[in-house]
């Protein structure tokens, strides 16, 4: 039998960290950045404050972990195996969801008071997403990763941030991706869809 003071297994540590991020996301999306403290996370996640410092560092580290979860697609296909369309779909599926929108609102709302945290949010989130797109763009692509990222999010993301739209369905995300790719002359990277488009033309 393992003693209570022993080192947690990898699975236990992973579950603990997910529990911590759950609390961080809940506080950020529900109350904003100012409500996020290590004392609160420690109490609500049932994790010792010393452990939080060891694993996550300070409050910025907690936010960083929450932002990284919103960009989980980077781990799903970060090796470049996915095509451009799949990469774009992965980005929108994550960033148009409730968690990502809530975290985005919390950070942008506090950006003026916490510029360093805002910069870290950008580097951990949008900048990494653009790098992910860059890895999937053809060398002769007529658009930069930054412009493509902005176009993909576009009005759907703006409306989500303002609370004017619900999380889009997968078909709606597909339609947004295909419209943007066609606008930049990148077409569809999905062979099945390409065949459908060719047969219908």
Strand content: under 5%
What's the helical proportion of residues? 55-70%
Assign an overall shape: elongated
- Low-pLDDT ranges: 189-201
Query: Topology as H/E string?
Result: HHHHHHHHHHHH
Total number of beta strands: 0
SS element count, helices: 12
> Which structural class best describes the helix and strand composition?
mainly alpha
Task: Considering the chains and any ligands shown, give keywords for the structure.
Arc Repressor Mutant, subunit A; 201 residues; elongated; 12 helices; 0% strand
Show the helix and strand layout.
Elements lengths: L9 H22 L6 H8 L3 H8 L2 H12 L2 H5 L6 H12 L2 H13 L4 H10 L1 H9 L10 H17 L8 H14 L7 H10 L1
Helix pairs in contact: 1-2, 1-4, 1-7, 4-8, 6-11, 8-9, 9-10
Give a description of the structure.
This protein is mostly helical and about 200 residues long. The protein has two domains: about 10-70, Orthogonal Bundle (Arc Repressor Mutant, subunit A), CATH 1.10.10.60; about 80-190, no CATH class. Helices cover about 70% and strands about 0% of the residues. It has twelve helices and no strands. α1 (about 10-30) packs across α2 (about 40-45), α1 (about 10-30) packs across α4 and α4 (about 60-70) packs parallel to α8 (about 115-125). Residues about 190-200 have low confidence and may be disordered.
């Amino acid at each position: 039998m393992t003693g209570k003071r022993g080192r947690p297994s990898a699975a236990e540590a992973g579950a603990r960290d997910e529990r911590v991020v759950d609390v961080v996301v809940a506080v950020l999306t529900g109350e904003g950045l100012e409500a996020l403290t290590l004392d609160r996370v420690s109490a609500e996640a049932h994790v010792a404050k010393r452990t939080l410092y060891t694993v996550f560092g300070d409050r910025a580290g907690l936010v960083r972990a929450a932002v990284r979860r919103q960009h989980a697609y980077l781990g799903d296909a970060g090796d470049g195996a996915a095509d451009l369309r799949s990469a774009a779909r992965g980005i929108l599926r994550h960033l148009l969801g409730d968690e990502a929108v809530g975290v985005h609102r919390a950070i942008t709302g506090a950006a003026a008071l916490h510029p360093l945290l805002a910069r870290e949010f950008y580097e951990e989130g949008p900048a990494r997403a653009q790098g992910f797109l860059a890895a999937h763009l053809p060398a002769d692509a007529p658009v930069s990763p930054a412009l493509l990222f902005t176009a993909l999010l576009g009005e759907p993301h703006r409306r989500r941030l303002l609370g004017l739209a619900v999380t889009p369905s997968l078909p709606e995300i597909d339609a947004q991706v295909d419209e943007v790719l066609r606008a930049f002359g990148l077409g569809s990277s999905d062979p099945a869809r390409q065949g459908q488009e060719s047969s219908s033309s």
